[in-house]
């Protein structure tokens, strides 16, 4: 009899202990106890990462040379068109001085023979190309009168893109750096080039200090025209086949949880019962959208994108005075 009573008491004790353990488990897994809520899940994956800096720019000549006449007079011939490639020393135009133009006009009135004699005796003055390049402007036509201040043609040795980079991003730009160029006129095409020069003096644009950066295209495409608007993407870093996770899933380590050694940030994992548990992670580079994971997570692992729970306020429709007002502390 006594043995039976002891056995019953032992069974009752074991049962109470099991009930206590179950209560503890379910109370710890209750979603109301967790200050965070999961918005959606995401998976860690392997992929390529590019860290970029973007800027706007303009297509412009690296060396813009205006060919002006050495003397005032009249343009007799223009031997080039816009887009023509010319060599140094090539004749671009022929012109007459003011005196020669007046003599030829007078000789023309006396007949073809007189005109021919004066043309042979008084030669035209040629305008020569000072360097190899491309004609980007044909400013005058034959018969027009010009002064020494009027350009006849404009020559460019090569077209570049000048991008305006914010001073906060300047430390990420380096000579020889790879850059992608997209023109507003041809948004579906990307032209590649490299950083050729970084200006030493800033410009103030919209109350922001910016620095002009010259990008030299690998090959000047036919689509390039001086003055076109361009969007430039500087490739700061390129990482191949690294572990990546959404940047919004990587957060600071929670203050109320003991911080593991060498833990920089946390990613949350949902355990059995729906509890969110922080996992220590170390990160590398980021492009803002995704972040490189160097330690703490594995390929294919599922993590949660979380946010803090907002306190819900229930208001009885029968309460006097309507909905309660937020205190200053709640408003903040």
Poorly predicted sequence stretches spanning 5 or more consecutive residues? 28-32, 312-332
CATH architectural grouping of the largest domain: Beta Barrel
Number of domains: 3
Helix content: 10-25%
CATH C-level of the largest domain: Mainly Beta
Helix/strand order: HEEEEEEHHEEEEEEEEEEEEEEEH
* Span between termini: 69 Å
Total helices: the number is 4
CATH topology of the largest domain: OB fold (Dihydrolipoamide Acetyltransferase, E2P)
Mean pLDDT: 83
Largest sheet, described in full?
A: 6 strands, antiparallel, barrel
* Strand content bin: over 45%
Structural overview:
The chain is of the alpha+beta class. The protein has three domains: 32-49 and 242-308, conserved putative lor/sdh protein from methanococcus maripaludis s2 fold, CATH 2.40.420; 52-60 and 158-241, Elongation Factor Tu (Ef-tu), domain 3; 63-156, RNA polymerase II/Efflux pump adaptor protein, barrel-sandwich hybrid domain (OB fold (Dihydrolipoamide Acetyltransferase, E2P), Beta Barrel), CATH 2.40.50.100. The protein is 17% helix and 45% strand. It contains four helices and 21 strands. It has helices at 2-29, 98-110, 112-121, 328-331, and strands at 36-43, 45-61, 64-67, 73-78, 85-86, 91-97, 125-128, 133-138, 145-146, 153-156, 159-166, 178-183, 186-198, 203-205, 208-217, 229-246, 251-252, 265-270, 276-286, 290-295, 302-308. The strands form four sheets. It has a six-stranded antiparallel barrel. A four-stranded antiparallel β-sheet has the order 3-10-8-5, with no helix packed on it. The protein has a four-stranded antiparallel β-sheet with strand order 7-6-4-9. A hairpin with a 3-residue loop joins strand 19 (276-286) and strand 20 (290-295). Helix 2 packs antiparallel against helix 3 (112-121). It is rod-shaped. Residues 28-32 and 312-332 have low confidence and may be disordered.
């Amino acid at each position: 009899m006594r043995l039976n009573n002891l056995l019953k008491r032992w069974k009752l004790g074991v049962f109470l202990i099991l009930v206590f353990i179950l209560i503890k488990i379910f109370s710890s897994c209750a979603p109301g106890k967790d200050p965070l809520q999961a918005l959606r899940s995401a998976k860690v994956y392997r992929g390529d990462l590019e860290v970029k800096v973007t800027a706007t720019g303009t297509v412009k000549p690296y060396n813009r040379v205006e060919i002006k006449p050495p003397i005032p007079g009249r343009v007799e011939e223009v031997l080039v068109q816009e887009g023509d490639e010319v060599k140094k020393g090539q004749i671009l135009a022929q012109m007459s001085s003011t005196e020669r133009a007046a003599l030829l006009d007078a000789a023309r009135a006396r007949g073809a023979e007189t005109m021919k004699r004066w043309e042979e005796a008084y030669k035209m003055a040629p305008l020569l190309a000072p360097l190899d390049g491309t004609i980007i402007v044909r400013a005058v036509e034959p018969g027009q009168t010009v002064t020494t201040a009027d350009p006849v043609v404009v020559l460019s040795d090569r077209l570049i893109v000048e991008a305006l980079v914010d001073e906060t991003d300047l430390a990420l730009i380096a000579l020889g750096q790879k850059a992608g160029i997209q023109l507003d006129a041809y948004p579906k095409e990307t032209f590649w080039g490299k950083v050729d020069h970084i200006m030493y003096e800033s410009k103030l644009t919209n109350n922001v200090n910016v620095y002009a950066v010259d990008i030299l295209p690998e090959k000047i495409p036919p689509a390039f025209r001086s003055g076109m608007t361009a969007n430039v993407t500087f490739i700061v870093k390129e990482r191949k086949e690294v572990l990546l996770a959404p940047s919004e899933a990587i957060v600071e380590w929670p203050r109320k949880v003991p911080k593991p050694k060498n833990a920089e940030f946390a990613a949350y994992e949902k355990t059995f019962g729906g509890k969110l548990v922080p996992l220590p992670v170390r990160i590398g580079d980021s492009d803002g959208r995704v972040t490189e994971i160097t330690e703490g997570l594995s390929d294919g692992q599922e993590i949660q994108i979380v946010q803090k729970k907002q306190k819900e306020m229930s208001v009885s429709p029968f309460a006097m005075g309507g909905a309660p007002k937020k205190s200053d502390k709640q408003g903040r």
